[in-house]
């Protein structure tokens, strides 16, 4: 009787092995679900970035406002006959560009 009990217990363990540790086992499924969640998170971030870039591209194609804004802030360019005024906070020092000779 003892031999039958041991053989049934061993058989039960052998049957459980693929369920827990096999190729499609619960542990592997949990790992794959974590990978899928990480991929969804990254995709959401990339979709937000793409939407922002798409908006910027449409703005650059349709109007001159975005081009002018980039020229002003990134290249410190000014229009002809325009006076450049920059207000600095306490302790900040930065030389203003020469209004007579704007940088291209």
UniProtKB/TrEMBL annotation:
One Pfam family it belongs to: DivIC
InterPro entries on file: Cell_div_FtsB, FtsL/DivIC
GO BP, sorted A to Z: FtsZ-dependent cytokinesis
Keywords: Cell cycle, Cell division, Cell inner membrane, Cell membrane, Coiled coil, Membrane, Transmembrane, Transmembrane helix
Places the protein is found: Cell inner membrane
Membrane side Cytoplasmic: residue ranges: 1-3
GO CC, any one term: cell septum
Topology term for the membrane: Single-pass type II membrane protein
Coiled coil segments of this chain: 29-63
Topological domain spans for side Periplasmic: 22-104
Primary subcellular site in the record, as a coarse category: membrane
Function: Essential cell division protein. May link together the upstream cell division proteins, which are predominantly cytoplasmic, with the downstream cell division proteins, which are predominantly periplasmic.
Subunit text: Part of a complex composed of FtsB, FtsL and FtsQ.
Family the UniProt entry places it in: Belongs to the FtsB family.
Cross-referenced HAMAP family: FtsB
Protein name per Swiss-Prot or TrEMBL: Cell division protein FtsB
Gene that encodes it: ftsB
């Amino acid at each position: 009787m003892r031999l039958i009990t041991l053989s049934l217990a061993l058989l039960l363990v052998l049957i459980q092995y693929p369920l827990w540790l096999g190729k499609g086992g619960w542990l592997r499924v949990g790992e794959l679900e974590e990978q899928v969640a990480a991929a969804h998170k990254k995709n959401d971030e990339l979709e937000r970035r793409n939407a922002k870039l798409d908006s910027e591209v449409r703005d650059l194609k349709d109007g001159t406002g975005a081009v002018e804004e980039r020229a002003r802030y990134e290249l410190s360019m000014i229009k002809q006959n325009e006076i450049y005024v920059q207000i600095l906070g306490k302790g900040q020092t930065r030389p203003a560009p020469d209004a007579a000779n704007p940088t291209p």
